[in-house]
Every structure is written in C-alpha cells, then in structure tokens.
Amino acid sequence: MYKGIYIALSGAVQKQRYMDIFAQNVANAATAGYKKERISFKDYLIPVDNKPPFITDGRTMTETSRVVTDFSKGTLMRTDNPLDIAINGEGFFALEGNRYTRNGNFRIDNEGYLATQDDVKVLGSGGPIAVQGKKIDVGASGEVFVDDISVGKLKVVDFSDRNTLKKLSGGVFRADVPGEELQANISQGYLEASNVEAIKEMVQMITSLREFEAYQKMIQAFDEAASKVTNEMGR
Q1: What confidence score (pLDDT) does residue 101 get?
Q2: Is 34 helix (H, G, I), strand (E, B) or coil?
C-alpha cells in the first residue's frame, strides 16, 4: 500500500516539475532568442525488499533525469532598429564573462560600447566594440561600421556539445570552455523570436495540471485506505 503512495507521489512530483518548466517557457515566450526547456525523465522498478538479489513486483517510480534545452531556431522579426541584430543559421553572439546569446536586442552602454540590455558588453574578434557615433551599420559578415568606419567584427561562436552550456536569464548561456568561432550571416534590424509556442505550452501545462490532480486523488485514496486499515486493526 505504501509503495502505491510512493508511486503516485513520484508521478505528482514529475507533473509539478513539468508545470514549472511549461510556466517558465510561457513567461519567456516574448524574450528574443530564448530557447525552451524540456524534462528528460527515467523510470525504475521498485524492489520487493532491499536485499540483493533484488526482486521487483513490476511497479515503477519516476524521477527527473535532466532538464534539456531545445536549441531550435526561432523566426526572425523585423524591427528596423539598427541595434537589433540576428544570426541567420547556427552560432551565438559572444559576450564578456564567457557568456553567449542569440538575443541580439543590443544597446549602447554608458561607456559607448555595444552591450546587452543588462549592460554585458558584446565581443568582437578583438574585444568589446565601441560604437560611439551617429550612424551604425552591421554587414552580413558581422562587421560593424560607425559613420562608415569599421570598428570591429561581431564574434559568433558555436559549440560541438551545446548540452554543456549553462542557461542564465534573458536567453543568455555560460560556457566553461570557449566556443569555436565561425563565419555567420548577420541581419541588422531583425531579432530572433523565442522558439516557444505559447499556446502549445499552455495546453501542455493544463494537461499536466489535470494529471497532477489525478495523482493527488490517488495519494488521498491510499492514505484513507491506510488509515481505515490501521483503525480497524486497532479495534
């Protein structure tokens, strides 16, 4: 009976985790360059006793294996803002502090450098890019011109194993090892939208909520049955 409670509880915990992930995805549906997350989980058999060799009764519990990031590309949105920059194809913009992003919603910081909205400097091949001037143009190769004078080239990198990237807020990732620089095709005046399909995520969140409620009812039923058995045995 108690194993039944544990099975139902493990299912409820997973559905709660699902709802958290779906809610996070929906909350970032409007964040440029955001990559949605998914849960990878695994099942394992419950042993009848804890002495080897293990004998199972066929019942399984579930636990989270890991949270994975879906790096599929979002659609490009035209903004006509010269500081909005998108990558056509693979890769990430390199930022200071071993950080990387596909969110090209940039600005000019107080020091006159190209930076993210959180004031993290965007890196070029030679370091941060100063963009003080009246006219800013970014070529398809990523070369940046200020008043028709070249001031640097955007550094775009990619990783052989993207699963090593650690997700931060605002569509930014951190890497322990540097990425490999590549030649990217850049579009100025565009932003890459999030790859989150908000309606689909909300439907999945509602489904997970209903399944969570079903597990709650199962736990309650097991608890009531256990209480009834205890009371009757006491009498």
Answers
A1: 97
A2: coil
